[in-house]
Amino acid sequence: MNDLMRCAHCTHLFRPNPRVKNQRYCGRRACQRARKATWQRDKMKTDPDYQDNQRRCRKQWVEAHPQYWSEYRRTHPPYVLRNRILQKGRDRLRRLAKMDALTPLSPVKPGAYYLVPQGSNLAKMDALTQKIFLIPIAYTDLAKKDSIAFAHSQG
Q1: Contact at 8 Å (CB) between 8 and 33?
Q2: Rounded distance, CA 68 to CA 76, Å?
């Protein structure tokens, strides 16, 4: 009788316990930890009462151990260095900037402008009215796909 199953975590073959319906994990410690972690993750997604209980327990633990993270950072310099490097990458992705460090992207402000030829002959009144619109960088790909030049290059 071949009633062996593959563990959902380690993929080793195991003989399931006949008293455990729908057993998917073997009895190894790492596999049972993975089973519990999966159950907790699913429970957190679907059960608001469980979420609230976990939140309260976490808050209670943090209040009971206020110096935990500062002590951990002090005794684990590699963790601090790794976190600093990863945080810089996350900041770059979110494009965080100090409020006083922001500079305008373009010195030209949007609006209507009169373009007047510059030269020694100022008797002519050849002023040309132009409206200037600033297009954010995020829209450049959209503008390219929408333009006539893009349509001709693809066709």
Answers
A1: no
A2: 12
